[in-house]
Known about the structure:
Layout: H1 9-15, E1 20-28, H2 34-47, E2 52-55, H3 73-82, E3 86-89, H4 117-133, E4 140-141, H5 150-159, E5 164-166, E6 174-176, E7 179-182, E8 196-201, H6 208-220, H7 229-236, H8 243-255
Parallel strand pairs: 1-2, 1-8, 2-3, 4-5, 5-7
Antiparallel strand pairs: 6-7
Zinc ion binds near residues 26 and 27.
Amino acid sequence: MRWPFNCNLFIINDMFKKKRYILRLDDACPTTNWKQWDMFETMCDSAGIKPLVSVIPNNQDPKLMIDPPLSTFWDKVRGWQDKGWMIALHGYDHVYVTQSGGLLPINLKSEFAGLEYDIQKQKIEQGLAIFKEQGINTCVFVAPSHSFDEVTCKVLHNHSQINIISDGMSYYPYRKYNMLWLPQQSWRLEKKWYGIWTFCYHPNTLPDDQFGYVNDFCHQYANLFVDNLEDIYNQYQHRQPSWLDQRFEKQFFEQHEPFK
Length: 260
Ligand SMILES: [Zn+2]
């Protein structure tokens, strides 16, 4: 087999790095399904896993209004932070205002992609102001529905401490638009041979019969889960996508039609 010109030793080097996993839990807000979230919290504590939790600063999405608002919501988020869980800014209000898929067209709806710089800046600043008021620190952005654009990256770079975007289709993180793209490739925990894999779960909507599998996987492979994003940032902050990463993204989008 003839290797492509740019398939070089860096790829071989990548393949022998240890595989690592990240459990991402999406859509934390005061009106979430607390019974399901409590189940995940108990499981993470028992396995010793520190998940990446995407927190919506000011949720206005009716689909995420399941339980009555928890008055101690921000105490809970601070409690997660104190336990070493990684907290991400998950947009501002989780309301979709454009039909753009942005840079990663997984879903054709967005809170950010396609909006002007000043509007995106306002959303990010308002979200971070709520985090600051509540004593929450973050260096990670999670775009609702994976939809964001180059403007979002510019705003994050120019107006926040955020330097990681939890998104992208690749085997390892890479730098693009002044952000480290920490890939989020899968929605089901699975054993992998190499790469850094973020598995995204929505505790609100996880069917009951799937929780046992998640619990077993997390306990069995607990030692492979990342619990410090600073190390990941330092290790990969200058990395460029390899030929394998580019092929991964191409194949993903060839096989997946965007959800409307
Ligand atoms: Zn979301």
